[in-house]
Amino acid sequence: MIQRTTRGPGSGNLAVPRFVPSGRPGVSAAVALTLARSVIVLRMLCALATAGAGLALDGALSDQLWRLALLLVLVLLAGFQQLRMLPRLAQGPDRFALIAFDIAIGLSVMVLGVGDLVSLVYQAGSAALAGVLIGYRAVPVWLGQAVQAALAAWFVMAQQNPSDSTAAVLLISPLVVVPVGVWAVAVSRWFTRRLLDLLETEGLDPEELQALVTRRLSRASLGAVGLRPANGSLAEQLAHTLTRDATAALERTRMPVRGLRFDRSDENFATALKRLCTEWDSSGRTTLATDLAPVWPPLPVRHELAQILDEALDNVSQHAGATRVRVTLAERRGDLVLTVEDNGRGFALPLDESALHSGDYDGLAAMARRARSIGAVFSLSSEPHSGTTLSVRMAK
């Protein structure tokens, strides 16, 4: 059997004001940019604070003054460069480039300031930055940082007789990296949920919604710290894009699907989907079975899932030659999963996923785009004479 899976974040134009994708992937990208700015700014401020504390303790005539100053200059220059790079980070590969740049600077910081608090601050900030940008895909980065810090601690303590404060920093450094990274991912997910709840709130005026989103993003990104760009702060640019997308998504929910509306948030979504299935089944050409669990997703999610189901059922009636089809809506491991299975003739999926967008599979490509717009994973399994299974899985 051949299986294809299409996953977000989708695509987006990086020109201002749109430099994040549309839909839920855009919200995730906006949160990544917002919290990345916060991490970078906090790391710069903490580096200044620890450097000041070092000067106060060691005195201006300390023979370590030059090293501390060099460390501080390196951290600040890297931070300012990263802040300039942030608006280009909506697409995944650019995020990995920034993380690679951060790791390279981190190595220099460790060499110059092994055992220094500034180095510890930078390593912790690197773990948090990777966490907010790429989530748990940063685990190899964290483990590499922890091993690197442990080797540095072993080397210094074996070759030298460090002071108690230096020894403490050396021992703590390998232990803080992974917890800080995990904490950053948890904060990112929590903030994403809060922002989605706000953007999917019904009845808010677009200007009021944009003001609320701007305020929330500005606070989270420490927007009061730093220079204000000529085209508006990062929070303002993101809020403009997200509000425009959210307003358009809510307007689309008023459009009927097979003559039915899916814009009632107080209605059990299973009930609404059951009506859609009944409407399709009225032709009587295929036996339809349903297993629909009660769920109450946001309106934009309801509408896109209904569109996907409608297009999937159309494919069954027009192309599959099936006698039976089963529609399932379930909650599995905290995810919302919509599945459509038929016993039709099936087909051989193309080896190259890009062929789905060649024009021969317009229906499948449209369903994949709709799934991406709500941050869901679209999967399709089929083989000749063995039916087809379509699945959309979305984290709640």
From TrEMBL:
Going by the UniProt record, its keywords in alphabetical order are:
ATP-binding, Kinase, Membrane, Nucleotide-binding, Transferase, Transmembrane, Transmembrane helix, Two-component regulatory system
Q: Name one GO molecular function term.
A: kinase activity
InterPro entries referenced in this protein's UniProt entry, alphabetically:
HATPase_C_sf, HATPase_dom, Sensor_HK_TwoCompSys
Q: Tell me which CDD domains the record gives.
A: HATPase_UhpB-NarQ-NarX-like (cd16917)
One GO-annotated biological process of the protein: phosphorelay signal transduction system
Domain named Histidine kinase/HSP90-like ATPase: residues: 304-394
A Pfam family? HATPase_c
TM region positions: 27-53, 65-84, 96-122, 134-156, 168-191
Know the name of this protein?
ATP-binding protein
Provenance organism: Kineosporia babensis
Highest lineage ranks of the organism? Bacteria, Bacillati, Actinomycetota, Actinomycetes, Kineosporiales
